[in-house]
Design goal:
single chain; mainly beta; 135 residues; five-stranded antiparallel beta sheet; two-stranded antiparallel ribbon; 7 strands
């Protein structure tokens, strides 16, 4: 059986910069994980479900305004109503590499892991409209 996975790629905007030096708050990446979780639940159950809790979050590298981030998530375990998920976010394009040329950016040969997490979502039985499996 293939693993059910969802992915989002976005450019982090200047309005996402929260700290000095255009550093982005880690909560922005967690919001991406929430969107990925929603897609996974819709694909698996036909319903958005509810995110109950993160049991692990690790911020591994900084994210700056202008970076392109790819967030991916997958179903790790499916219970009666609970769905355990794992997430990873990678920087795939790095912006602001030359202060003299603020529009400069580079595609990274190897994506940089910026955040990883795991958590649990719930889809009540009466909201489960699919038998799982995606599509």
């Amino acid at each position: 059986m293939t693993r059910l996975e969802a992915k989002i790629r976005i450019r982090i905007s200047q309005s996402d910069a929260h700290y000095g030096g255009n550093l982005v708050d880690g909560a922005r990446i967690l919001a991406l994980f929430g969107d990925v979780a929603t897609e996974l639940l819709i694909r698996h159950d036909g319903d958005e479900g509810l995110f109950v809790a993160y049991d692990s979050v690790e911020f591994c590298a900084p994210v700056y305004a202008g970076d392109f981030i790819e967030a991916v998530g997958w179903l790790e375990k499916v219970g009666n109503t609970s769905r355990r998920m794992c997430f990873a976010a990678y920087k795939v394009i790095e912006a602001g590499i030359d202060p003299k040329v603020p529009s400069a950016a580079r595609v990274l040969e190897e994506p940089i892991l910026v955040t990883r997490a795991s958590g649990t979502c719930v889809v009540p039985k009466d909201r489960q409209r699919r038998s799982g499996g995606g599509g």
